[in-house]
Amino acid sequence: VYTFREKLRLAQNSNASWVCVGLDPVLDRLPASLGKSDKPLLEFCNTIVDNTHDVVSAYKPNLAFWLAQGSSGVDQLQRLIEHIPDDIPVILDGKFGDVGHTAELYALAAYGQLGADAVTANPYLGVDAISPFVAVAQHGVFLLARTSNPSAPDMQNLALGDMQIYKYAAKLAAGWDLEYSGTCGVVVGATYPGELAQIRSIAPDLPFLIPGIGAQGGDLRAAVEHGSTADGIGPIINSSRGIIYASSGSDFAAAAREAALTLRDRINECREEAG
Amino acid sequence: VYTFREKLRLAQNSNASWVCVGLDPVLDRLPASLGKSDKPLLEFCNTIVDNTHDVVSAYKPNLAFWLAQGSSGVDQLQRLIEHIPDDIPVILDGKFGDVGHTAELYALAAYGQLGADAVTANPYLGVDAISPFVAVAQHGVFLLARTSNPSAPDMQNLALGDMQIYKYAAKLAAGWDLEYSGTCGVVVGATYPGELAQIRSIAPDLPFLIPGIGAQGGDLRAAVEHGSTADGIGPIINSSRGIIYASSGSDFAAAAREAALTLRDRINECREEAG
User: Fold this and answer.
1) Which end of chain A is less congested by CB atoms within 10 angstroms, N or C?
2) CA atoms within 13 A on the CB side of A9
3) B201-237 CB burial, b ≥16 within 10 A, e <16
4) Size of interface A-B (CB pairs under 8 A)
5) pLDDT, tens digit, 9 for 90 and up, residues A78-97
């Protein structure tokens, strides 16, 4: 059994890719060509996976998109994760944040029921809310530092003395990573490229999960330049809508593959330029 | 159609109760007398509801406990909420916190699929992450200010100038409540009784959701003294394990009713003492 870090590194190396696909399907945006299915989200995403798994290094389903279809959606999510090849890490994006007793139940849901490798979590409740997700090193947790949404500064940019809260969150994550043996990472929105460098200096060893590429329009160059850990684990650069909805026609699977490849190649060009 | 505030006030008045029951069942703590059921969480909680609905003013299922049983758990949660009498508000405790586009999907899950009246949410992502939950006044959102877990101070007690983060969260919630027409409340752990008074002074109009009574051992007197809004909406005083596991025997339903009644009466005595 690999640790989460090792599994991620192996997938990045074998597919020469830092691309993560956000598996966030919305029922009324699915291609008409899918036809009638009683598991439409699953059918759509399985096809995306079948056409991208050799050019990406992670998948990130967001729980909300599946829970929005009730119990059927959760059933489809469980089947989707089962369908994803074992060598590609799956990060369940649940932004979990609850008291310890309850976080244990979320860990059971994410790992035991759904079969994810890692999760995203919110730092607001402190370490109690995190530790159940990293009780064993084959799992990992990505703590929200700077999110990619317009109102992120409402709280995240407030100043704690000379340090803004989002930087302090990265500092907390770095401390928890020491305490929990290299199982932590941070979420840093690429919509705020200057902040990637700052967070990298605070948390040199933590893998970055970077949303906001694509539909949200982040800065790829900064993501590549500051994205890697000191020991060479690349950033997890997520694109969701830019890949899964690359075409709304019957060619959606080929178009998704093409979009994933294009993003992989753009990232790899940036890597060569950066040396 | 009542607003959430009105629905809560009516339930508090008609049952003379500020008690909220946390419907957080764990499979291996259910009474043996339940026997074999393919929907054990539902069967257990339906029985709790049948025996308490006239002495409480809210129910608060925590999503984690249901999601820990996968799609079946989510199906049971949906059926449970359907079973709860219409005049008792249901707060889905999901501590949601995601970007606007995704928060919309969580609102669809919580209200459209599961049928809850209100949710709990995390303030870390700012107002984008909140607004989809309060798009209409029949719904409400309780923002985490001070949580009841031991590591809450890791982030919540940090000082922003002369104001700690948990107070700032209450201030944000008060602002959002003005923007979204009286649909916001705050979560304030009763394990930190002094803080109830501080948060009440920052947010005089916001209903309080107070966990930490019972198994977590909070201070009931402070919850009563500072719990009500300026216009007389009482606090939502939650007990989960202290009520649902009041007995592990075949008398669990009667014991749960007795525990809910005892808590209601203790609260009402505190109210009389406080005048």
Assistant:
1) C
2) 14
3) ebbeebbbbbbbbbebebbbbbbbbbbbbeeebbbbb
4) 189
5) 999 999 999 999 999 999 99
The CA R_g of chain B, rounded to the nearest whole Å, is 18
pTM of the model: 0.97
Distances in Å between the Cα of B145 and the Cα atoms of A18, A26, A111, B25, B158 are 37, 32, 29, 25, 13
Residues B154, B155, B160, B162, Cα dihedral to 10°: -50
Please indicate whether, in this complex, the C-beta atoms of B122 and A124 are within 8 angstroms of each other. Answer: yes
SS3 B145: strand
Nearest to A59 by CA among A233, A202, A236: A236
Mean pLDDT of chain B: 95
Whether residue A144 has pLDDT greater than 90: yes
- Identify the H or E element spanning A103: helix A100-107
pLDDT (tens digit, 9 = 90+) per residue, B61-101? 999 999 999 999 999 999 999 999 999 999 999 999 999 99
Placement of tokens 């803080």 in the chain: B195
Residues of B in contact with A103 (CB under 8 A): 64
| Residues in chain B with pLDDT values less than 50 | none
Distance CA A100, CA A125 (A): 9
**Cβ–Cβ below 8 Å for B125 and A144:** yes
Q: How many C-beta atoms lie closer than 10 Å to residue A94's C-beta?
A: 28
Nearest CA in chain B to A26: B105
Nearest-Cα residue of chain A relative to residue B143:
A124
DSSP structure string for A138-186: T-EEEEEEE-SSTTTHHHHT-EETTEEHHHHHHHHHHHHHHHTTT-EEE
Cα–Cα separations (whole angstroms), residue B221 to A273, B60, B193, B238: 64, 22, 9, 14
Assess whether pLDDT exceeds 70 at residue A215.
Answer: no
Q: What is the structure's pLDDT at B92?
A: 99
pLDDT at A217: 60
**Backbone phi, psi, residue A247, to 5°:** -135, 145
Both tokens of A213, joined, read 């590429």
CA–CA separation, A183 vs A206, rounded Å?
A: 9
Nearest in space to A46 (alpha carbons), one of A25, A29, A27, A28: A25
Q: Chain B: nearest CA to A275, how far in angstroms?
A: 34
Query: With contact defined as beta carbons under 8 Å apart, do B109 and B83 qualify?
Result: no
Q: Are B264 and B56 in contact (CB under 8 A)?
A: yes
| CB-closest option in B71, B95, B127 to A151 | B127
pLDDT higher than threshold 80 for residue A219: yes
